[in-house]
Design a protein that fits this description.
The protein is of the alpha/beta class and 429 residues long. 36% of the residues lie in helices and 12% in strands. Helix 11 links the parallel strand 10 and strand 11. The two termini are 15 Å apart.
Amino acid sequence: MITFYWKPTFTKNVKDSVRVKTENRSFYGFYTSPNLDDFWTNGNLFKKVRDAWNENKDENSNARVFLLRPGEEPWKLIDSFEDDQSKIILWYLDAVLYDQPDGSKYDGGFHDYHEIKKLIEKGKDVLLVLQDNDLDNCLTFDYVNTYLMADKVLEQQQNLHLGKSVILRLFENSKSFLRIKHFLSFNGHLKTHRIMLLLFILINELLDKFDISCHSYHWDDDLKEVRNIISRMKLVPTEEWDNQKSDKMMNLTNLHDVEEDIIDRFRNMLPLNLDLKSISHQEAVKMINSTAVNQKLNVPLYFNSYIDVITESNVSDGGVLITEKIFKSLVCLKPFLVVGQYNTLKVLKDYGFKTFSDIIDESYDDEKNWVIRSNIVFREMGRISLLPLEKVDEMYWKIEDILKHNFFHLSKYVSNVDDEVIKKIIGGK
């Protein structure tokens, strides 16, 4: 038997529950058996794992799957199953790996390190399922990687009317037209690297080159803290920045030097909405399937520009998290620049996708310092912004075969990951 546990902050379909009081009141509540169709990612994979377990294991073999977001603590609940010999699967639904300034392993950067270590020392059969890719093999636990929302983006690709052919036909038809913008960039929550991107665009007067959003879906958030956020940024890299950059394209290594009028202009333009309807965030989260906003593909908007500038969820080292932002670009046949984590492109290539070094300087992916890495992306973005659209169009169609490869490879990637996760869970101890 396999049982899934989930704190009922998302699903309303509670079949059964277990009440557990912890030392921290914030984790006082119920763990529930969820409706697996409700999840924004991995929902179909949960069901595949359930079915595979029931088909391949005898009735005396048990597994308990804890579906976790960072900071949630199932340890008291696990301890309450005294003398239980079930396989424990800790399935994390978001990033959990963080960099260590001293270069040490992830005991401090991985919030649950010590608790998991205790379970293993007690003889528990524990498996982690992670969204992050641990490239340095720093984790000492048994784990397997899954994906974040690649499955939902794939569903969008396949469920559009007439299936994949709609996007492909738009792609082929677009050969006859000149697109309007150089770049497309979606930016959600205000984060340091997203603020850097917007300030770079404002300072260098590149806004007309973009279809861009920033902080949309958060229309009623208080923006008074924007200046304070910027004032707390200390972004001077340890190495000297490349002095051969274009005079026009200033880099951002110290946001304290940004002029006050630019800061005010940035603050006053937020939220910078692009395609979402302006309803309050509080209202949106109450709507049925409100989390699906990140799953939707606004296909016509993707075909209005040539290159996507993706600001991933974080820029820290310690793991690589690839989110729906990149998967959407792959499905919509777009090349992209990534303001994200070290070796993000390497991970994509390891998974069989192709990147765009034929038209884009991708050396940023090899830079460990995230400030310098971001500046290399900005410099390349600045270079392309100076090109006429006719030249960018020529660059774009030069990589037509790569774009098509990525479009078709997504389904293979999701299938391969599903098979690997199921194999790891079913074929464990």
